[in-house]
Design a protein that fits this description.
This protein is of the alpha/beta class. Helices cover about 30% and strands about 20% of the residues. It contains four helices and five strands.
């Protein structure tokens, strides 16, 4: 338990500050689910300290069924953290408009 208990966070795995920030959210009690790439490239290795206190699922966001699964997870989330270059999320069909259409109260961070 912690001050963020009950907060649901979706982290789309990437590099930079996102893994560290999501580790901190998980350390404070948030339920963080990391979305990893199916090809194993990018993101934080499973055995890294930055991966602690999180569950993960591997999705290929270029596949419609995987993208729909992510959007279903977003419907129940409070926060979405992603670190794509500008325009990539929109091109994949998971940009702010698509996410807010599923969950108007979603807080996003990039």
């Amino acid at each position: 338990m912690g001050p963020l208990a009950g907060v649901k966070v979706i982290e789309i795995a990437g590099l930079g500050a996102a893994p560290y920030g999501c580790m901190m959210l998980a350390d404070m009690g948030a339920d963080v689910v990391r979305i990893d790439r199916t090809d194993g490239r990018g993101g934080t290795p499973e055995n890294s300290p930055l991966s602690r206190n999180r569950r993960s699922i591997a999705l290929d966001l270029k596949k419609l069924t995987h993208r729909d699964l992510l959007l279903t997870l977003i419907e129940k989330a409070d926060v979405l953290i992603e670190a794509f270059r500008p325009g990539v999320a929109e091109r994949l069909g998971i940009g702010p408009d698509a996410c807010f259409a599923r969950n108007a109260r979603l807080v996003t961070g990039a």
